[in-house]
Known about the structure:
This protein has 347 residues and is α/β, with parallel strands linked by helices. The chain contains nine helices and 17 strands.
Amino acid sequence: MQSAMHTTGYAAYSPTAPLALFQFERRSLRANDVAMEILYSDVCHPDLHTAPNDWGWSYYPIVPGHEIVGRVAALGAGVSRYRVGDHVAVGCMVDSCPACDQCRKGEEQLCRAGNTSTYAGQDRITGENTQGGCSKHLVVREEFCLRIPEGLDLALAAPLLCAGITTWSSLGTWNVGPGGRVGVIGLGHMAVGLGVTVLSRSNDKQVDALALGAARLLVSSDPQAMEKATSDFDLIIDMVSVKHDLTPYLPLLDVDGTLAIVGQVGPTIQERNTAPLLLGRRRIADSLIGGIHETQEMLGFCAEKNILPDCEMIRIDQINEAFERMERADVRYRFVIDKASLPAQVA
């Protein structure tokens, strides 16, 4: 076993403190571990909720960040898939059991024993707290390390590891292929593409939606437009990250249609009348990221089709400002941290 790796990151030291520089040790490499130098990481909405302990499972200090791109820095003795210098990525999890039925069929995110989160989790073997990608280095089990395909822009790929796979997995889970009728609540831009309808309370986002390739924008506060869109969709992906009423959207689903909630953790559903579900055999469901094979497949597809998010590059010392701007929805559309701005060690 190789010795522990000293590294730096930015951590929340309490629910009310801004993120600040943090020096810590990454665990020693086991035989099946990959150590990576992090080049880029994304700022995702779960980071925004984890730092102040909105969901009740944070510990302190805690380093957020679960959309991570970098290069292999060191390998455990038994690793055969990677070489030092390979470009790799890590998403929302770094381990799972791996013996249960879900892990065996490639649904590690649904591990019966619980997957090991990239941060806000506990190491499966030692029980120590996991720390995320808002840091200079990461250690991950080989099977949870993803290969970056040739041609995929490293600086823009990080948001694919959560936002991208969440959208991809939703489409796959409910068998929506070419020609499928998809609506997206909110301008979750990783879900917007050719043929997709964006649903928004006003038409303020119409220019952006059409520029991203949407077929149209449907104003959910317009009763006539909503009635005209009855039964228009096979799948609606709900990207909204705050509590909201689902009632207006259910009649938009066709028979056997699904509304998949992917943006909000916590209280969301305010629907009291089951008639729209009953009469159309419609359903409300959640979708949690995707498995490792599925994520690798998504990365390959994005590289082949040159599908990448719109990002604003920031320095690590701008992380607190980024959090404030995300609260105001003042970003188009993702923040990515360039880790060249973070020293490997601090004197």
